[in-house]
Amino acid sequence: MFSIDRLRALAAVATHGSIARAARALHMTPSAVSQQLAKLEREAGHPLLQPHGRSVRLTHAGRVLAGHADRLIAQLASAQADLADLGSEVLGPLRIGGVGSAVRTLLPDALAALAAEHPRLTPTVVDGEAVDLLPRLVDGELDLLLVESWTTRPLAVPEGVTLRTLIGEEVYVALSAHHPLAGRSTIDLAAHADLRALADTAWACCPPGTEPHDTLVQTLRTRGVEPDIRYLLADHLTQLALVSRNVAASLTPAMSRRPAPPDVRFLATRPALRRDIRAAWLARAQSPPVRACLSVIAAAVATAVPEVPEVPEVPDGDGEEG
What we know:
The protein is an alpha/beta fold. It has three domains: 4-85, Winged helix-like DNA-binding domain superfamily/Winged helix DNA-binding domain (Arc Repressor Mutant, subunit A, Orthogonal Bundle); 92-167 and 276-301, D-Maltodextrin-Binding Protein, domain 2 (3-Layer(aba) Sandwich), CATH 3.40.190.10; 169-274, D-Maltodextrin-Binding Protein, domain 2, CATH 3.40.190. It is built from ten helices and twelve strands. It has helices at residues 4-16, 19-26, 30-44, 60-85, 100-117, 130-138, 192-199, 211-221, 236-244, 288-301, and strands at 49-52, 55-58, 92-98, 121-127, 144-150, 161-176, 186-188, 202-205, 228-232, 250-253, 264-270, 273-282. The strands form three sheets. Strands 3, 4, 5, 6, 7, 10, 11 and 12 form an eight-stranded mixed sheet that branches. A two-stranded antiparallel ribbon has the order 1-2. The protein starts with a helix and ends in a 21-residue tail after the last helix.
């Protein structure tokens, strides 16, 4: 009979790629993890690890057993969650991470509802980008994420992470009221004249490696335009402050349009750009606090994205230039 603790150690090495990182995730010493794995190898009757540079990698037998370990651990977590649900309260810590616009728009009402419904639950929140938050989720530092996935750059997640789409929204090009295209209601990404105007515009955007940055670059680069990104700012509202002064343009999701500063115009794109906000959690760690938070966030989604009045379209004059 295999020990669940030893199977958990093997699963952690398979997930994190080294004994040291697995030890950190399990809050154990590397020596203790190595001892658990040595005992598991004797129980299995097969070598489970082999040296790989300065680290280790799983043998074929190790990968087979790690697959079974993942399923057993997930089933055990499900049993523990079911037992916890038998109690009258959802309690304990809930560590949430999210992109700033989702935190600002979805979480305040959700946290208030959690406090009212589950007063012994203790949520904490950090903001950031998916590229930084997902490793913390996998390492067990966070329980639930609110991350973004853009149509032109779908979010890739590690194995074992579950995603649920909470809300989908349109993405706009934000321009100053003094920009040459500001009188329009849409920007045609297939029109030469529109693309030339965007090529001559400086951009404010989130830092490289983030979904918004890579979406902007990919969207324009595939159409022959290299965006002039001068301002690397994680917060959409800070980007809009520059837009209002005709310093830059930005890609702005619907939920970040308010509160917009004066003199900002939001132009839809053709074809439409869209962004999904998705909840992410480890499948093997869907605890009652995570389920409770997902429930109250779902209730907050209905009022998450206010309508913004359309700007009347002004005729383009001579039309598209060849």
